[in-house]
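Agenda item 2: LTUXU72L complex prediction
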Amino acid sequence: MQADILIHARWIIPVEPPDQVLDHHALAIHQGRISAILPSAQAREQITAERVVELPDHALIPGLINAHTHTPMNLFRGMADDLPLMDWLTRHIWPAEQRWISPEFVADGSRLAMAEMIRSGTTCFNDMYFFPDVTGQVAQDAGIRAVLGMILIDFPSAWATDSDDYLDKALKLHDQFRNEPLIKAIFAPHAPYSVSDAPLQRVRTLANELDLPIHMHVHETADEISQSLEQFGQRPLARLEALNLPGPDFIAVHMTQLQDQEIERFAASGSHVVHCPESNLKLASGFCPVAQLLEAGVNVALGTDGAASNNDLDMLGEMKTAALLGKGVAQNPEALPAARVLAMATINAARALGLEQETGSLKTGKAADITAIDLGPLETRPLFDPVSHIVYAAGREQVSDVWVNGCHLLQERTLMRMDHARLLANAGQWQEKLIEWRQSDAS
Ligand SMILES: CSC[C@H]1O[C@@H](n2cnc3c(O)ncnc32)[C@H](O)[C@@H]1O
Ligand SMILES: [Zn+2]
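Presented output:
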């Protein structure tokens, strides 16, 4: 058999089927797709490859999928810390966005975020931000898989003036990227408190027509619930249900405020949840009942949220936090075992985003979206179970190689399609501009 690349690894963890760890196996890539997974000894006899990669202390896992982020916000990292969500948004982030959002800001911020994600093993991200067309272009240049939010919010921005304009631009974005293999555009109304009924109804109609998912912040804080009760006489989820939003194409991010009945109704609708534990902890927004949601049959994926509320885009770290917090919230150490959390960061995310046929597990025929983690260093020795170390012990600096669609984006920790020095210089320029603006604003 002929292959473009043959990777021999100490372990291959396909994620699907669950709980499988393949020892001394090899993975073959042909024309961007996984063409075979078989014992290394057999691969050496049967497969002729143009390139052979030896990873003797490494685990190959499906590329991690960050199911909710705001990539350009990397330029706001550390600018407003230790605040509750509404103060953070209305007193710091939205004023900064009003001043700074432009195609240049989005290009530079999203590029920095993509470099950080690739260096930490993420091969696909689901983004929600202004100028998603720019983020899409940067993602194509970087070679990373991206889901772009066709955003909608009641406020005017540098991207769009009103809901008609947001939705016109959404449809153009969808058209622009419809034939791009690594890019997908999905609806992204911001939150129940920031989008009115009429545009939400239009989103539901368009999502049905185009067969695309809807991704939205929902039940993030207790304040969101009380404000909705005051304004609409309903909890946000009940209002969204009346607008027919929940369903197998609906992705609710956060969900920290949930009653038992709401969990049952949400599970029955077939909707998905994206859990962002570190952002929820840092903003003290509340705790998502992940174990209860999984028990009810809800598909739960994992996201970092933006770097301005997390403050990193490290999915390995996010997995550890999700596992620990999930046990704490359930008051049960058996809740959220490591393998379950790895599934949340891979196959569950692919399922939520409608990408399950393409990515999310290491399976013959799927795209070669692969992350290699070096478990050789003393920080992950001795080793009894590679999945345990990936979730509980390994740091993102142990990610050695990353492939997306068979393209080698990170090789022995070197970014292959991005200029590291330029990324740093560019971040430095934004730092100067933002510091100067904050000083002039304060005086
Ligand atoms: C319409 S573009 C996205 C919009 O969302 C803001 N944002 C970032 N993080 C959060 C969060 O955790 N909850 C709510 N809104 C958030 C971002 O600043 C943009 O304005
Ligand atoms: Zn968010």
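Discussion summary: The chain has a mean pLDDT of 98.
Owner for follow-up: CH.
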